Amino acid sequence: MNFELMPVVLFGTLFPIVIGLLLRLPKLIIEMKRNKQWIFDWIKFMAIGIPSLSIIFMSIFPFTPLSEGFFTIPEIILIGSPTIQIIAGVVFGYTLLDSLKK
Fold this sequence. Notes:
Keywords: Membrane, Transmembrane, Transmembrane helix. There is one protein chain. By secondary structure, the chain is mainly α. It is built from 4 helices and 2 strands. It has helices at 6-32, 42-60, 75-78, 83-98, and strands at residues 39-40, 100-101. A two-stranded antiparallel ribbon has the order 1-2. The radius of gyration is 16 Å and the shape is elongated. The chain starts with 5 loop residues before the first helix and ends with a strand. The mean pLDDT is 86.
């Protein structure tokens, strides 16, 4: 039997993003009730969301076929507990919905 590692890695990185989205969802629902125009806060998304997305990408990239001989990933992201990936996922999910303003 062959063990497919990619579904486990994808679940481990996408689940914290969903948790971050769910943490921000109640406040987004309250903001949706207001009658204002929707805006997207690009500064917050670029300052917080893009770096956390890059940490998430660096945790998935070594398990893809494209990673062979491409570049090295910092060891702090690959070694030890997945705390950094979990925190980055929750932060990215929360920031994604927090950047939407009404």
